[in-house]
Amino acid sequence: MTLLNNLEVLVTADEGYRAFEKAVVAAKTRIDMGFRVFDPRMHLLSCEAREFGSRWVDLLLAKLNEGVDITIALSDFDPVVRPELHRGSFKSLSILLGIAEMVTGHGRLRVTVEDHPARVGWAPRIALWPKVQSQVAQTCDWLNGLEDAARAEAIRFMPRFTEFTFEKDGKIHPKRREFPPMLPVTHHQKLAVIDDEVLYVGGLDLDARRMDTVHHALPAEKTWHDVHVILHDKKRALAAREHLESFSAECAGEVSIRSPEGLLRTLSVKRKRNSGSLSPHVCDTGIMDRHLELIEQAERLIYLESQFLRDPVIADALVARAKTAPGLGLIILLPAAPLEVAFEGAEGLDYKFGEYLQAKAIGRITEAFGSRAFIASPAHCRKSEAGDRATLCGAPMIFVHSKVSIFDDHAGLVTSANLNGRSMRWDTELGIEISDPDQVRMLRKRVMGAWLPKGADDCFCAAAPETVKKWRDLAQQNASRAPADRSGFLLPHTASAAESFGTLLPGIPVEMV
């Protein structure tokens, strides 16, 4: 067990962004970052940071003028499948490069937009060509629906999408004979290293959409619950910085794979020859491996809080442990529905496949554990008139994006990885293990306590199988009451909607979703 120095558990962006800002303000020599989403237009929250201006652009410029070197690795995305994210990354790049032009001090700014070099093989690309062409055409239609100035602005930040289009008569059209390379993998990490001494890591990217507080007073579609940690640990901070310097070359197969010391990671590598595969070469599965080890060792209570629980490997491990540890309890907290399904009405096969996998995993786990397991989802304490997937027991759902796993008082994992095959084996992910018993208890109290009514007894956060019943009783009591009369946010999760919505896709790797 290791005591982590100055460990802080940050629940929601309100806490996470303030701590992140303060760490950046205190930077003396260098700041190294890797984010899936990083919007430098984001408003600053902390008093310390707001002394430099109102937005992150002001803070970054001030630190550069102080002589602090800043390196940022932004994730890129498949420009056909996720054009809005591709556009967002290059918009952020443009803003950051604009900051570099204003620097009057000695700090150096280096910004890269990194896509994972793995590509879908030729055979599946040919098979999927009609679908890909349809997606290119849809984005062209969207662009053509914009005013000229807005269209030019959008295209400016879509450099890899425009490779598959041409302009004629003032409109954007798909190149019909193009076979766009399909990107099956992404860099999903969210971390920052300050002065090789402070590490900020977990599930939070930086933008306005993720902004929320522990009160979750926003409309359902604007809620966002997440968990990050910050700590002062030179060994782990240096390992994280070395990861940021090497992950791109590792994914490309240009250097040997070396797992970062003291950290947990997922990292895959592009295949040298790939004619028929949808997948990359799976290499570093440290996050999954540690989950499997800790599941096998757990005796009293496992608590899992995640955006998804879809991975059959994790489900298999939980089912097996249920049989060998009769005194083990299990609590899982998930959002009532995936974000795109709940708030955007998504009905694509990828969403249906993901829901199928999660419903199947939950069914197997609950059957194995019986009454020793409880699956929860959070919702507001107010009435919702909608009857869609964004509503749970008559109340608007709270979207959960956390990635936290806690095992007895033995270990807690805070990472960027969901409990799905993609995060466990394909995408680039990073996280940390907390192993000091007192710090594990602190983590559990902060994470579990965020969902409980104010003043809830400590037994609701105990590493004991009896905690399962306490959570179930509270959630069921809430479900039987009007939303305004409920205590805390907990409600029973229901998988029935996912079961009816979900679809099995034979031959498609579970890691795709």
Brief summary:
This protein is an alpha+beta fold and 513 residues long. The protein is 37% helix and 19% strand. The protein contains 16 helices and 20 strands.
Describe the structure.
The protein has 3 domains: 3-116 and 184-244, Endonuclease Chain A (Endonuclease, Chain A); 122-174, no CATH class; 285-512, Endonuclease Chain A (Endonuclease, Chain A), CATH 3.30.870. 37% of the residues lie in helices and 19% in strands. The protein has helices spanning 12-25, 47-50, 56-65, 83-102, 122-127, 129-144, 148-156, 234-251, 286-297, 312-324, 339-344, 349-369, 421-426, 437-449, 466-480, 496-501; strands spanning 8-11, 30-35, 69-75, 109-114, 165-168, 171-174, 190-194, 198-202, 227-232, 264-269, 281-285, 301-306, 329-333, 373-378, 391-392, 395-396, 403-407, 411-415, 429-434, 490-492. A hairpin with a 3-residue loop joins strand 7 (190-194) and strand 8. Helix 3 packs parallel to helix 4. Residues 183-210, 396-423 form the PLD phosphodiesterase domain. This is Phospholipase D. InterPro entries: PLD-like_dom (IPR025202), PLipase_D/transphosphatidylase (IPR001736), PLipase_D_fam (IPR015679). It is found in: Secreted.
- Spatial sequence of strands, sheet with the most strands: 11-10-19-18-17-12-13-14-20
Count, helices: 16
Structural class: alpha+beta
Using only C-alpha atoms, the radius of gyration works out to: 23 Å
Low-confidence stretches: none
Please provide the count of β strands. Answer: 20
User: Could you name the CATH topology of the largest domain?
Assistant: Endonuclease, Chain A
**Overall mean pLDDT score?**
97
**Amount of beta strand:** 15-25%
